[in-house]
Amino acid sequence: MITFFCLLLAAVAYAAVRRFEWTHTFKPQRRMEGDPSLIGVAFEDVIFFAEDGKRLHGWWVAHPEARGTILYCHGNAGNISTRMDVIDGLHGLGMNLFIFDYRGYGLSKGIPTEQGLYRDARAAYEVVRAKYNDDDDPPVIVFGSSLGAAVAAQLAADKPVRGIIIEGGFTSAIDVGERWYPNLPVSMIARYRFDARAKLCSLPQPKLFAHSATDKVIPYDLGGELFQSAAPPKHFVSLNGEHGEACWRDTPAFYAELKKFVASVMQ
Fold first, then answer.
1. E strands, the chain, where?
2. Tens digits of per-residue pLDDT, 187-239?
3. How far apart are CA 29 and CA 106, in angstroms?
4. In terms of C-beta distances under 8 Å and separation of at least 24 residues, what long-range contacts does 44-47 make, across chains too?
5. Burial zone of 45 (CB within 10 Å; 0-12 exposed, 13-18 middle, 19+ buried)
6. What is the pTM of this model?
7. Where are the domains of the chain?
8. 110, 141, 188, 231: which has the fewest C-beta neighbours closer than 10 Å?
9. 140: which strand partners?
């Protein structure tokens, strides 16, 4: 009987740890708050499927004079409908944009996991590739923000992309967890790794990094360590404001660097 209760207690503790980690890693919002028509941007609803059959949703925002496509991997909260500033800004770069929701976010089915997000990004890449008649090397720049930075890094390791943009990224989820909870054995109990550093250290594509010195969610020095460990060519922009996306609102110089980066990669 004692053994049974010990096993039961261990199972409850394990479940509590797993739930704690999941809720602190993913903060999906199912409810959609609008679409790009609210900001006067034409778009196409896209339904597509991940490798494991999960039904996903995204928006294809075409540009009439597009030099290529930005594939956007968003952060851990909300969904694509809460990122109108992102859509408006990236559309203004003279690029097509494909922004999609991971499984469990918005209209995408399923429950988010680390490997699931990687599968979803690969499926989104195939949507873009199909727009270029299944070209094996479409003109794609992958843009990852916050948690999406690790997803973008994995995608760049899995698929051919022309450039990589990282905004508010981190070295690994373990490093972030150890900063948030210094008294917990994070590396021993964490299941999610999201190790962006391990990917970016060997990728040869041009890279643009941006991070706010006053970021209270992802420490600035972790963004700096990620930049330092990444393979060249690379460039870093120091931002103002809080942790977020579309940080060119607080730091207009970031948008200028985005324009230069896109022009350089797509020339």
1. 27-28, 44-49, 55-61, 69-73, 77-78, 96-101, 140-145, 163-167, 207-212, 234-239
2. 888 899 999 999 999 999 999 999 999 999 999 999 999 999 999 999 999 99
3. 6
4. 46/98, 46/100, 46/127
5. exposed
6. 0.95
7. 2-266
8. 188
9. 69
